Amino acid sequence: MKCALVTGGSRGIGRAICYKMAEMGYYVLVNYKSNAAEADKTLVQIIENGGGGELLKFDVADKTDIKKVLEGWIEANTGKYIEVLVNNAGIKDDMLMMWMKDEQWENVIKTSLDGFFYVTRMVLSDMLVRKYGRIVNVVSLSGLKGLPGQVNYSAAKAGVIGATKALAQEVGRRGITVNAVAPGFIKTDMTEGLDEKELGSMIPVKRFGTPEEVAHAVGFLASSEATYITGEILSVNGGLYS
Amino acid sequence: MQREEIIEKINGYLADEFEIDPDKMRPEANLRETLDLDSLDYIDLVVVIESNFQIKVKPEDFTNIVTFENFYDYVIYNGKEELV
């Protein structure tokens, strides 16, 4: 059975990506860290829509947890394999750098950059053997352009962008594509409190995007048709930065 | 399984993966040159070993593998195929 693993799949963009993967026929592994109720809502909706999946609780910032849960799942489910990996989990903890605490830097880097590394390395072996795989990393406008107050987040996402390009070159010969989607301002918990009217005036499309619009881009890069696109960073930002 | 049988299996996998004439795979031949391996090709070689012989390959394992003979010894010594 072909599976898609979506990290940080309980809410927001991750949830929309889970729905998209289910719509594409994948058995969806909905990863979440702590919000079981929201993760469950995602899974229930997938099943109500006629799809299949299960919850996979682990913290992408904790390599021991990843090894225990994800490796355990892979070993216990030999008939299923992860064909699509969407590294979506991320946190932000904004602060001007002069006041940024060690843990604000470390936690954001650990979740986005370390999370990408440890999760991807674990699912890569199977993809290499099967000579097929789709890895899509959800990065950010912040990682492309850099945003003030987000030195940690910009650095983490820029790191994932570099890793996307490097890994794409390592594994392209074995039918595995590695791409990233860089959302701009998207209506989620992360952008709650931001003034859409004021910020929207700077966006050519004049509004924030929706999680579904990001999921659509992820779905395209995760599709079997997107065979000749790899190492690419696809912006989904309404024209704000290109 | 006899050593020769294991070697035949290894050569078969390598011939498939690297599209190379099995006659060129002589024990004394240089593995890297014969298979025309660049650094990224090692991914393919590792996949051949890991998926067919259940060996977890470490990068440093390749330090002492120069010839096909070295490679056969490595797979036979570390693999799960039993010699008889």
How would you describe this protein?
- The complex is a heterodimer of chains A (242) and B (84).
- Chain A is built from 8 helices and 7 strands.
- By secondary structure, chain A is of the alpha/beta class.
- Chain A has one domain (2-184, 213-235): Rossmann fold.
- In chain A, β4, α4 (102-130) and β5 form a beta-alpha-beta unit.
- The mean pLDDT of chain A is 97.
- Chain B is mainly alpha-helical.
- Chain B has one domain (3-78): Non-ribosomal Peptide Synthetase Peptidyl Carrier Protein, Chain A (Orthogonal Bundle), CATH 1.10.1200.10.
- The longest helix of chain B has 16 residues, at 3-18.
- Chains A and B meet through α4 and α6 of A and α3 of B.
Outline of chain A: globular
CATH homologous superfamily identity of chain B: ACP-like
What multimeric state do the chains show? Answer: heterodimer
Rg of chain B: 12 Å
For the largest beta-sheet of chain A, the strand count, sense and barrel status come to: 7 strands, parallel
CATH architecture of chain A: 3-Layer(aba) Sandwich
The number of domains of chain A: 1
- Based on secondary structure, the structural category of chain A is alpha/beta
Give the helices and strands of chain B as they follow along the chain.
Answer: HHHH
**Side-by-side strand order of the widest sheet of chain A:** 3-2-1-4-5-6-7
The value of Rg of chain A in angstroms is 17 Å
Distance between the termini of chain A: 38 Å
Secondary structure: number of strands of chain B: 0
Contiguous uncertain segments of 5+ residues of chain A: none
Per CATH, the class of chain B reads Mainly Alpha
List unreliable stretches of 5+ residues of chain B: none
Specify the CATH homologous superfamily of chain A. NAD(P)-binding Rossmann-like Domain
Biggest interface pair, residues each?
A: A-B, 8 and 6 residues
What proportion strand of chain A?
Answer: 15-25%
Net shape of chain B: globular
